[in-house]
Write a structure and sequence with these properties.
heterodimer; A: eight-stranded antiparallel β-barrel; 7 helices; 11 strands; 27% strand; B: mainly alpha; two-stranded antiparallel sheet
Chain lengths: 368, 579
Amino acid sequence: MTHQAKLLTAALVAGTCLSAPVFAADGTASPVPGRTIGYVMTSEYKAIWDTPDGKLECPQGINNGPREEFKILYPEDKKWTILESQLERESEVWYPTLKPQEKLPHYESIAKVAFGIDLNDKVDDNDYTDPDGNKGIDNQTQRAWGCTANYRSTSYNLGAFNNWRKYAYNIIVIELTDVDDLINDTDVTLTTYRGMDRPMTDATGATYLPGGTQRVDMRFGKDFVQKFKGKIVDGVLTTEGADYTEPSAGGGSNIANVRYYGARWRLSLTGERAQGILGGYMDIGDWNSAANQTRSTHHQAYGQAATPSIYRALMRNADYADPKTGQMIAISTAFKVGLTQVFVQHPVNEPAVSANGTAPSATSMSRD
Amino acid sequence: MNVQYVNLKNSGSLRRLMAAGVAILAVAGLANCSAPSAPDTAKAPAAAASVVAPETDDTSARRLRLMTAEQYRNTLSYVFGPGISIPTAFAPVQRTDGLLSVGTSFAGITAAQMEIYQKTAATAAQQVVDERNRNFLVPCTPKNPQAADDACARQFLAGVGRLVYRHSLDQQRLDGYVKEAGATATRLKDFYAGLGVALEGVLLSPRVLMVSERAEADPQKPGQQRLDGHSLATRLSFFLWNAAPDDLLLKAAETGELHTQKGLQKQLDRMLASPRLEAGMRAFFDDMFHFEDFNNLAKDAAIYPVFTTTAVQDAREQTLRTVIDQLITKDRDYRDLFTSRETFISPSLAAIYKLPTSPGWSPYEFPEGSPRMGLLTHISFLAGHSHPGRSSATLRGKALREVLLCQVVPRPPANVDFSAVENPKGNLRTARDRVNFHLENPVCAGCHKITDPMGLALENFDGAGQYRETERGVAIDATGSLDGKSFTDVKGLAQAMHDHPAVTSCIVKRVYAYGTGSPTTGADRQMLQGLDKNFAANGYRLRELLKTVVMSSAFSKVADQSSAPAKAASVSPSSVSAE
């Protein structure tokens, strides 16, 4: 072996999850060589329970978007200055208030069913039951987002962050360690990272391929590293809660980070794929910044998503208080996520995990 | 656009090339191409060559070859720098005696091909005289950039013309180009536009696009012919660099140095030490391994989703990188290519190999115990010689015979009934089942016995080159044999190839044919045997083989074709049994 090849091989052995999963004929995997398996996120959708016509959960109809609201606020029968109209509205987008807006009703979903995870191990009055009958589901964004076209499964869905190959910033990698068995294991660890490589697609470009390699960013990406304790039962991983910061990107490579407090994962695992739910209490200020930084009003208008009204709805339904101030700052939410197996490559001489179980440090995004 | 049209219509180059367009290039047409005798170099002291060439009076045939697109690109890149982009592709030629490069001696020129040449020359010329490049590519500044400047045009065209023509332009031809540049510059009030049009004419010249070998009397061997200095330089350069000669090589040709043992050895050593050797040898192996097939290789995306278009290109690149690394950079035994675990991987290939990797290309060594070993387990071989939706022991065996052992497997008869082996509901679950079915039919068995026993040893790899242990739920039996050697798996096949005498004689044959541009014939047998022995004596090192071929008599001496029949007329068919 050449010196160069030896170095590379040594680096790979030292820094990479070399354990190629054993794939069973049915696509499932059981024992995991090396006790480690990685995945990269390849789909993430807001988990909204809805019906095709929306009459059941949104009897008052679907919410207006930015264009409709603008027309209501600034009717054409009067001449408006830019300061009175566009700039005022722009200010409201970036610095939303909780001041009631009678002219701009925001309809909330009245569904009794929601996707999600029980984030607080309690069954409260406001909790949902998921389609599988599990009670105590914490997902108040079902109410706040449920009648907004943008986030519904039947509509043009800007909430579908399917930008994994378009942007470099929002590559989300998870690594499961201490895995003895992908079907049943009482003690595993899920660690999140920001990946540095665009996920690989198949020959058609339509499907993400397992078997790629993701280098994890331990230089600028430490904010995204978090460790979750978990267990696997009948091929489904569930984790305990931990605070998690997720990188997001969109709209011409604009980036933003969103904090989720007490986040949890529930994933069905195979050697090639993982899919399920990422839940948590989403920081509403982060959400507002991210929504507007990564999507222009123009694009939000396609899906009738007016962030000032949505912000008020999120705050109205917020169910997580800042432990220090007691102020409501976050709302329970859930995302349907899909992940594809990758080999995770850690930097040489870099500890694989540096998270300490507390909230990652504040990002550049500020809450209002 | 009008500028090009008007001036090309006036271009003598285009008319000359058009006139030649319908001709089939063949050696017979070169019978009267002898050049005046070169300076007598017979008295030059003989060099102490590091490689002992076979002591023979062997000769090769003179050729008129069509330059390939890659040779054209390489040449312009070396003359003008890598910033000149030549994106067009020339028409394919027919593979002859296992090599496309030999097929360039049998190529024709169609009207459509003419158009490609014209566009290519125009594209290159425009870039050279473009404002961004002219200050460092044109060695002089016109007195008035809006008028003709014959002196500056002459300086540029004489220098460039010598490099792309592969000899100095004669006065009359140079005068014509200068006049063309001046007339266009005057008409368009733009010196560089005129220069561009003249350069386009140079690059479109038949003497540039066609590599014509010229002979002269050999002063050391009265009555015999040798390539003249420029032709020898050109043959040498296209052989080792896949590009036209550089200034130093042309000077060696012009001074007669190249016709001395010492001079030839000096240039050979210089060329072998040049980074251009890598491009030259990549071209050779790309040709020998039939890698042009990768331009059209496709797999069923539903069956092999991992076999992406990137993987197709990377598979080709992986093998070329490996070969160059092993044979040129590390100067290793050619036979070790079949057993070495060292290679390079890219992210798209790593997904097929199920390995982690880093972005870009990385050196990688498959561990002991891995089924990956040698060229036969590269994705380029496994996927390149499979069906779009499944592996093929037959195609792999055939390729092994024809590409790597220089043998010829007869084509199947036209009326083969494939229904029995292609019936998905049949009970033929594995490739071995299908092969056994072939062997039951005497009509099929004759050829399948030649190809299948070694192809079956590769059945642990599917049609995309992915490792597998079962096919349709049945454990794969990878036993096989090759010319009397039996083995139980691909490692055995790799070793059998490593030890097969035809592996080394095949590359000797290909290298010689590639270097001289001629298909080998039965008459070359003795000379090739000498090269074989020399190759063995030098530890099967490719660099030594290149030296031996270049220093051989046959490389620089040519048959007197005014009296002898053209070699091109007799491409001897070889077959498994014959070789």
